[in-house]
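Assess this today:

___
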Amino acid sequence: MGRSLVALLFGLLVLAGLTLVVYLLILVIRALRKYIRSGEVRRETEAARRSLGEVLKAHRVERQMTQEFVAESLGVSRQAVSKWESGASDPSTSNLLALARLFGVSAEELLAELKP
């Protein structure tokens, strides 16, 4: 009787392990499906980032400023300005406000120029 009880407990443990594996597999599949469906949102976010960079570059060029001048005025590196304009990264809120002041526009005006 002792061996059959051990075998029964082992069988239940294996069954619980398999149930856990199936449950985790279902969660992974759901997460992947959600990620795949969010592709459009990710593309829109990417487009908005590029658009912000385009807006910043347009204002800088319109005012005949160099990236180096903008960087020195804000206390950041020229590479940071380049990354903002290329869409590789976004300026912080404080840097965005400083850019708006430097360009002589409000932050709302800068953001209003973004593509929807």
